[in-house]
Amino acid sequence: MASRVHESERRRSRDARRGRHRASAQIEPFTRGFSALGELAASGAQVSLRINDITTGEMLMSADDHVVVPTASIGKVLLLIEVAARLGDADFSGLTILDREPLDAVADSGIWQHLQAPSLPVADLAALVGATSDNLATNVLLRHIGLDAVRHRAEEIGLKRTALLDIVRDHRGPDNAPQLSVGSARELAWLFQALATGEIVDATTSRRVLAWLSLNTDLSLVASGFGLDPLAHREPDHGIQLFNKTGSGVGVRAEAGILRGPNGAVSYAVCTSYDDTELGTRLGVVDAVRILGQDLLEYVH
After folding, report:
1. Which residues are paired to 260 by β-bridges?
2. Is the pLDDT of residue 237 over 70?
3. Where does the record place Basic residues bias (predicted)?
4. C-alpha dist (Å) from residue 156 to 1, 68, 149, 153, 219
5. pTM for the whole thing?
């Protein structure tokens, strides 16, 4: 990868690891994942990576984490933050009913488009976004809240390289934003770390966002290395608890999250952009990020 972990940082990570797992003291953490992602980058993919230890606040590993890259649906987390922050307003509660309109219609991820209900409460829409990255629910919430409000909130909490740029569209024309969202691995890992410590807006807002993210059924990328049930992992399983959001699109696979275990907790973000003309290339990306997930699991468990 273009950017490598400094030796001092890797040494600190290794020392921390030895303190937790004496039997594996000779194994440097994240070696397999870093190597797999390095091979991916050498093949022409763009890889951006950041891993933080939530307990110590220490950066454990990074690679090109400052680069702004497409993050697909990960930007929906910013919408969830704005929704969660507004639930304390007198005129905006979780039971506020919102209607879907023809202008909101969009395909791909989500289940509301397949349901008969024409209206749902705000809290249910947020749950659908957290659970299935629901595109229709996203557009309805954005129409009610406004994209500008989401952007302002992101700037207010300190994000400079991470943004939700547009509503979800089936097709992007020359007058539309080229991506649904962009971000840097550094900011995304920080964002999830701050959610874990209750520092995004306030503790109540952070808890609400994490509750919605705990419903996420997409464990196909980094989280595929954790061995969790995709449909039921809100409670700790073998001491492992996950909160994550993925982003998938043509030539884009990205994930940011929080992984807690008996021996620690990490926030992580890994974003990949690649030439999606062959299935083998995509499968190589999925395999590489799964290996990173296995390293993360070993670190916290």
Report:
1. 241, 265
2. yes
3. 13-23
4. 32, 19, 10, 5, 30
5. 0.90
